[in-house]
Amino acid sequence: MKNYISYDEVNITEAVNQRLSDCKNPRLVQLVSSLTQHLHDFVREVELTEEEWLYAIQFLTETGHMCTDKRQEFILLSDVLGISMLTVLINNRKPRSATEATVFGPFHVENAPWYKNGDDISHGAKGTPCFVSGKVKGVNGEPIKAVLDIWHSDEDGFYDVQYPDDKVAGRGKLHTDDGGQFHFRTIKPVAYPIPTDGPVGTLLQGVSRHPWRPAHIHFMVVAEGYDTLITHVFEKTDPYLMSDAVFGVRSSLLGDYVRHEAGEKAPDGTIMNEPFYTMNYDMILTKKAEATSAA
Ligand SMILES: [Fe+2]
User: Fold this and answer.
1) pLDDT tens digits, residue range 104-163?
2) Residue-level pLDDT at 28
3) Element (H, E) at 201
4) Measured in angstroms, how far is the CA atom of residue 126 from the centroid of ligand 1?
5) Per-residue buried b or exposed e for 35-44, using 16+ beta carbons within 10 Å of the residue's own CB
6) Using CA atoms in the order 60, 65, 69, 72, what is the torsion angle rounded to 10 degrees?
7) Is residue 294 scored above 50 in pLDDT?
8) How far apart are the CA of 28 and the centre of ligand 1, in A?
9) How far is the centre of ligand 1, averaged over its atoms, from the C-alpha of 145 (Å)?
10) Which of 39, 53, 101, 174 is 20 to 30 Å from 236 by CA-CA measure?
11) Torsion over CA of 272, 218, 236 and 207, rounded to 10 degrees?
12) Distance, CA 124 to ligand 1 centroid (Å)?
């Protein structure tokens, strides 16, 4: 180990990482030393100016100030830089037949209301009715009794938490039946722009990127003995599939939202007096050991 009194543009990296020598947590040493190495390499590569350094500090400070219990600007920042999706990809190497995972996003809330199979989880969210159904099963086809946590935007592209009132709409939890079947009524989500009134919006505008995400419903599927699945089902004709602002689209997650006209019978037997959609999508889970051993 070298001892430095003063540092140059190169040895300062080694000097910082030498200060980790008393740390007893090897994973933490790996994380901090690698982060230091990459950040220092970045600063050297772009020859960061002091004005740019200060701007970055202010940007991150504003990002923190934007966070509340309903708004997570740091997740949004991670999302638009592709870091969230890259982390998902690394941590969800599954057999080809399993449902793929995608980003969690910033709009999930704990303790969404419980519903029963068949209920309307829109709870007043505006939009065209949509009847969603599917089955939770394993990669070998076995039915799985699971809990689904579901959330999505309304027809104006907003999640309930983006409104100033405390109304809960367009989200809920439900149990599958014993055969893994689930079905519920809600409204068809639409494409929406991620929030652009904070520093992440400033970043996107600065680099001439659009903020749009293709229409999707979020699902978190939890079952005993299986890996939790966090995913979306996208609308397969959405124009933003190829340019999702958060890089979350996967070709296996395209759902067929089928339009039906007024006067047709809905899956729950109701003769609908307005157009509506149906969407069926099965959720295929991996057993805990399957996901960790699969390449
Ligand atoms: Fe979303």
Assistant:
1) 988 898 889 999 999 999 999 999 999 999 999 999 999 999 999 999 999 999 999 988
2) 98
3) helix 199-206
4) 16
5) ebeeebeeee
6) -30
7) no
8) 32
9) 25
10) 174
11) 130
12) 18
Backbone angles phi, psi at 7, to 5 degrees: -115, 150
Q: Length of the chain in residues, anyone?
A: 295
Long-range CB contact pairs, 287-290, < 8 A, 24+: 287/138, 287/225, 287/226, 287/227, 288/225, 288/226, 288/227, 290/94, 290/95, 290/98, 290/139, 290/227
Distance 107 CA to ligand 1 centre (A): 7
Contact between 280 and 133 (Cβ < 8 Å) = yes
Is the overall model pTM greater than 0.85, yes or no? yes
- pLDDT, residue 291, reads 52
- Residue 255 backbone phi and psi in degrees, to 5: -100, 150
Q: Which residue type occupies 25?
A: N
Q: How far is the CA of 137 from the centre of ligand 1 (A)?
A: 24
CA of 214 to the centre of ligand 1 (A): 9
Question: 242: CA distance to ligand 1 center in Å?
Answer: 16
The per-residue pLDDT for range 227-266, each reduced to its tens digit, is: 999 999 999 999 999 999 999 999 999 999 999 999 999 9
Question: Could you give the domains of the chain?
Answer: 1-48 (no CATH), 73-293 (2.60.130.10)
Pairing of strands 129-138, 181-187: antiparallel
Ligand 1 centroid to residue 105 C-alpha, Å? 6
Q: What is the 78 CA–ligand 1 centroid distance (Å)?
A: 15
Dihedral through CA 25, CA 29, CA 89, CA 231, nearest 10? Answer: 50
Strand order in the sheet with 229-235: 114-115, 171-175, 147-152, 216-222, 229-235, 254-255
Question: Exposed, middle or buried, 15 (CB in 10 Å: 0-12/13-18/19+)?
Answer: middle
Task: Judge contact between 223 and 283, C-beta under 8 A.
Answer: no
